[in-house]
Amino acid sequence: MCSLEKRGNVWVLTLDGEDPQHRFNPTLIDSLLSALSRLASQATPGSVLLTTGHGKFFSNGFDLPWVRAAAATSSAATDRLQSLVDSFRPVVAAILSLPMPTIAAVNGHASAAGFLLAISHDYVLMRADRGVLYMAEVDLGLPLPDYFAAVMRSKIRSPATLRDVVLGGAKVTAGEAVKMGIVESAHDSAESTVEAAMRLGEVLARRKWMGEVYAEIRKSLNPQACKVLGLSQKAIVSKI
Q1: Number of structural domains found in the chain
Q2: Which of 32, 192, 60, 198 is nearest to 116 (CA)?
Q3: Into which family does the record put it (predicted)?
Q4: Pair 98, 43: CB distance under 8 Å
Q5: Among 92, 96, 179, 187, which residue has the fewest nearby CB atoms (within 10 Å)?
Q6: Residue 217 burial (CB < 10 Å; 0-12/13-18/19+)?
Q7: pLDDT higher than threshold 80 for residue 235
Q8: What is the CATH number of the domain that holds 92?
Q9: Does residue 240 lie in a domain region?
Q10: d(CA 13, CA 21)
């Protein structure tokens, strides 16, 4: 599950619930989609999203134990995994089209789909004392979904870094991620990471940008990812 709390103009979306690894299963994905839909409908000039996790994990990706459970055959497990891949696509699309600036405060491990969730945000801040960014598919023997690849290419512009992260399965610490340009900054603890993200959110909120315009500009910066996700550009009439 996830919770949504408004602090001033900053909306704080926290991955929490009984699973300490915040693995994406139908329940968590539905909860995320509901929260993001609420955000999109209630956005006002100056709104900002801050996403974080509770505990030692930001998110450990898809819920593979759920995939394997109650699956009598390998094809049944494959179908379950594909259902997660398909249902998570709208989550990424919603973040990339959200009418407000977005910040991920990565409080711990962010693996596979958890890594993707983090870098789908406009800004990524990360805890330095614990946790890594890890695209696990190559080690798990799983293909990379098309929208995963599109977002990774859009957000990680260095071919060598993209190779090491996606094909090499590199486990990237916060300090390394800063040097690679994947995250903005590294912080001493989960608490200081969220505090820094809140300060950034408050700075962004003071700009009072029009959310719809902000979202369209974001789309224009990530054309291939938006194409794969089925996001189209909308014409906005200037008020000038």
Answers
A1: 1
A2: 60
A3: Belongs to the enoyl-CoA hydratase/isomerase family.
A4: yes
A5: 179
A6: exposed
A7: no
A8: 3.90.226.10
A9: no
A10: 16
Average pLDDT over residues 152-178: 97
Q: pLDDT grade, residue 148 (50/70/90)?
A: very high
Look at the block and give the residue holding tokens 């962004």: 204
Residues in the chain: 240
User: What's the token pair of residue 119?
Assistant: 């870098």
CB of 60 closer than 8 Å to CB of 22: yes
Domain that holds residue 116: 2-229
Question: Is residue 185, in this structure, part of any structural domain at all?
Answer: yes
Is 197 contained in some domain?
Answer: yes
110, β-bridge pairs: 59, 133
Nearest C-alpha neighbor of 59 from the set 10, 1, 138: 1
Eight-class DSSP state of 109: E
Structural contact between residues 151 and 116, judged by C-beta atoms closer than 8 angstroms: yes
pLDDT of residue 238: 61
What does pTM read for this prediction?
0.95
**What confidence score (pLDDT) does residue 17 get?**
86
pLDDT reading at 74 higher than 80: no
